[in-house]
Amino acid sequence: MSGRWTIAPALGPATPSWDRLVLASGLPRLEARVLLEHASGRRREWLLAHGDEIADARAADAFAGLARRRRDGEPVAYLTGSREFLGRDFEVSPSVLIPRPETELLVQAVLDRALPGARVLDLGTGSGAIAISLACERADLYVVATDRSPEALAVARRNAQRLAGQALAGARLLWRAGSWWDALDAQDRFDLVASNPPYIGAGDPHLAQGDLRYEPQQALVAGGGGLDALREIVAGAPRHLRPAGWLLLEHGCDQDGALRALLAGAGFESIQTLRDVSGLPRVTLGRMPE
Ligand SMILES: C[S@@+](CC[C@H](N)C(=O)[O-])C[C@H]1O[C@@H](n2cnc3c(N)ncnc32)[C@H](O)[C@@H]1O
Questions:
Q1: Which amino acids bring their CB within 6 angstroms of ligand 1?
Q2: Number of compact structural domains in the chain
Q3: pLDDT per residue over 117-140, tens digit each?
Q4: For residue 15, what is the domain's CATH number?
Q5: pLDDT tens track for 71-118
Q6: Is 77 within a domain?
Q7: Which residues of 157-187 are buried (b: 16+ CB within 10 A; e: fewer)?
């Protein structure tokens, strides 16, 4: 059992307690606890209540391996295979973006504007976080989700089966493969279109930092300084939105001005930008004329 002693040679030959594993991991305590829950299959409350007891040796070995990979930089969500989004646990893998809290603002903006029975499109669904959350929150919505990546769509379908079984049974949540608007039929029309597309420019130094190093490039990077995917989505939206339909887009916090100009140029009205909890501009939306 290789990994056990690499986390803390000073611990001595005996398997340490659950608390000691966390302390000796060299990780922030919350991250270490999440990984220990995953490695042991024990709930957080159990681990807290039994923290001073000798850890199970197999769990300690598994934890040592995960802690080492985390110290090397792998995202916690890829190590555990899941990330919470709007109160639900989504399966994630290195073929999908790890859902971000900022995207919850986009989902809420859709929910605030969707009339009963609305048809909603999620372009570039990744893990399915946006589409599945909408279908779970509102049983009246009809949701279509697309992605260019077959691997991402496979993850999204599994999430849907686990989290939105009823919605699937009612055929209210449909999947389409393809690049942006090409994934749809020419006659498809929606009341709302939401997307969190790639919007980081190639060569942006953030791509070499933190979790972004491990996430799929096609989920992160867009040409034209990060604006090309947003441009393509805005340009095609008028053909697929009903009169008075909304287009809602997540974007980088320095892209709101450019996006408002794109929306105005494509004939959108009621254009506004929403800010996240840190006060940063994150979601810009516009409405087609009546
Ligand atoms: C930033 S991720 C967003 C994933 C998910 N919607 C979320 O918010 O967590 C962008 C997604 O767009 C997909 N994508 C990239 N280029 C695309 C294209 N040309 N057509 C369709 N989807 C694309 C990627 O595969 C990825 O899943």
A1: 96-97, 99, 103, 124-127, 129-130, 146-149, 152, 179-180, 196-198, 218-219
A2: 2
A3: 999 999 999 999 999 999 999 999
A4: 1.10.8
A5: 999 999 999 999 999 999 999 999 999 999 999 999 999 999 999 999
A6: no
A7: bebbeebbeebbeeebbebbeeebbebbeee
